[in-house]
Amino acid sequence: MSNVKIVKSVGIGGVNNYNDIKTIQINLNKVLNLIPPTKRLDEDGKLGRFPEKSKTVAAIKTFQKKVLNMVRPDGRIDPNGKTIRKLTDCILNKKSKSAAQPTTINPVKVEKTSALTWDVHTNRRILTLHPYVKAPAAAFINSVEDELGITLRVTQARRTIEEQNALYAKGRTTEGRIVTKVKGGYSYHNYGLAIDVVEIKNKDVNWNPDWNAIAKIGIRHGFEWGGSWKTFIDKPHFQITFGLSIQELLNGERP
User: Fold this and answer.
1) pLDDT (mean) for 204-217
2) CB-CB contact of 10 with 83 (8 Å)
3) 231 confidence band (pLDDT: 50, 70, 90)
4) pLDDT digits (tens, 9 = 90+) for 132-181
5) In b/e form, how buried is each residue of 164-185, taking b as 16+ CB within 10 angstroms?
6) Of the four listed, 24, 105, 175, 179, which is most buried by Cβ atoms within 10 Å?
7) Please, is 204 exposed, middle or buried when counting C-beta atoms within 10 Å of its C-beta (0-12, 13-18, 19+)?
8) ∠ at Cα 245 (212, 253), nearest 5°?
9) Which of 173, 168, 198, 229 is nearest to 39 (CA)?
10) What is the pLDDT of residue 27?
11) How far apart (Å, rounded) are the C-alpha atoms in residues 198 and 181?
């Protein structure tokens, strides 16, 4: 879908239909880079009992202030108003840049050269990633080694739906501790857009390296860090979503 379309107004004083709210939440999540420090919104179609206190309305106001330069943001998006038009423009512009980016990446070259790191296991797992994630993943691993002297191994890259469901069962219907909160199809791993890493030190696994230093390098290479999440913090996890939500991926959209 190219344009952001809602039927009724969303936000303070709006009609606030479920589908319209969810549409705004999904699309605001696509432009988080424009509205820091806004965190990813729950795409639940809700504003709560007091919309003016909701995170979604706060994000609308931040968008209006930072992107539209509104002195007094009203926290409301109307179907044909300037806020939704600007939101659409920002998303279209982002998609056009994302569409242009792949032309700089040669998947064949990525597989044969750019995906090489110090570790054969990491190299093999990187090859399972989406073509646009292979080069950033290898560059991330190599930069951490060069700059920090930390040798990271990719422990997980692309997972099948069956593998994801097996992980989800741990601590629930099978033995072990809970290691994931999502079923098959609801993880960026399932689309080759995420990696989990661990330090290999003196031929042994170290799950407590300097994650903050590692994360800074990962973020520099375009990854989102699971250690910055407010719930279910996952420090070994890094992902590149290209602005796509899980629902969009489930619907068949791809970078």
Assistant:
1) 96
2) no
3) confident
4) 999 999 999 999 999 999 999 999 999 999 999 999 999 999 998 888 88
5) beebbeeeeeeeeeeebebebe
6) 24
7) exposed
8) 130
9) 229
10) 93
11) 20
Ramachandran angles phi, psi of 125, nearest 5°: -75, -35
Q: Please, which residues bridge with residue 194 across strands?
A: 239
Q: What is the pLDDT of residue 179?
A: 82
Task: State both tokens at 165.
Answer: 């469901």
What does DSSP say about strands 10-11 and 224-225: parallel, antiparallel, or unpaired? unpaired
Distance CA 46, CA 135 (A): 38
User: One-letter amino acid identity for 199?
Assistant: E
pLDDT of residue 95: 62
Q: Spell out the SS3 assignment of the chain.
A: CCCCCCCCCEECCCCCCHHHHHHHHHHHHCCHHHCCCCCCCCCCCCCCCCHHHCHHHHHHHHHHHHCCCCCCCCCEECCCCHHHHHHHHHHHHHHHHHHHHHHHCCHHHHHHHHCCCCCHHHHHHHCCCCHHHHHHHHHHHHHHHHHHCCCEEEEECCCCHHHHHHHHHECCCECCCCCCCCCCCCCHHHHCCEEEEEEEECCEEECCCCHHHHHHHHHHCCCEEHHHCCCCCCCCEEECCCCCCHHHHHCCCCC
Query: Which tokens go with 15?
Result: 């009609």
Which residue has 């890094």 as its token pair? 238
pTM higher than 0.70 for the full model? no
* pLDDT digits 0-9 by tens, 12-37: 999 999 999 999 999 999 999 899 88
